[in-house]
Specification:
mainly alpha; 6 helices
Length: 175
């Protein structure tokens, strides 16, 4: 029995997608469009992979070739995609106040430093995980720019605004 049309060529498309990820990570590999057809382009990409990785060059995806492609694709996928997001843990209603030390302050201070250096509208915080005067000033300025009450304390709402502003600033950051 022949599989329905939606399943035809999916292993080939998966192979092509993995080879494309490997090529995005290492431009010495040919780029391949995942079209689900094991044609000359796919054979050439498989042959190139086999040659580069010490496998018998046949252009055919046998089990050792498939396993090597999977082994190389997984770390390549991590390198070519966005970094894993990080969720901080603040208990419901938790507020980090002036004078407190907290591990999340290291992250907040690092992000505030980037915002300060890129946009120059937020004062430079101190470092060290302590919510001191300099860090409180940075947080309060971020809060004002985000139309939040200027408490200088780190709560979930302030963290959300910090996390929303940080990615764009980080993409423009030049040390």
């Amino acid at each position: 029995m022949r599989p329905t049309e939606s399943f035809v060529g999916q292993p080939i498309r998966a192979l092509q997608t993995m080879l494309r990820v490997i090529a995005e990570d290492d431009p010495s590999h040919p780029t391949l469009v995942p079209d689900g057809i094991y044609g000359p382009e796919t054979m050439a990409a498989v042959s190139h992979f086999q040659r580069r990785h010490g496998l018998g060059v046949t252009g055919v995806t046998d089990l050792p070739t498939w396993e090597a492609i999977v082994r190389h694709c997984n770390p390549a996928l991590i390198r070519v995609t966005s970094a894993q997001p990080l969720d901080i843990l603040l208990a419901p209603g938790q507020v980090i106040c002036k004078g407190e030390v907290h591990p999340n302050l290291y992250l907040a201070q690092a992000m505030l430093t980037v915002l300060s250096q890129v946009y120059h509208s937020i004062p430079l915080p101190s470092q060290g995980g302590l919510l001191d005067e300099a860090t409180a000033d940075s947080i309060a300025t971020l809060q004002a720019l985000s139309s939040l009450p200027m408490t200088g304390e780190l709560d979930k709402i302030t963290w959300k605004h910090l996390a929303l502003h940080y990615p764009l600033a980080a993409s423009r950051y030049r040390p």
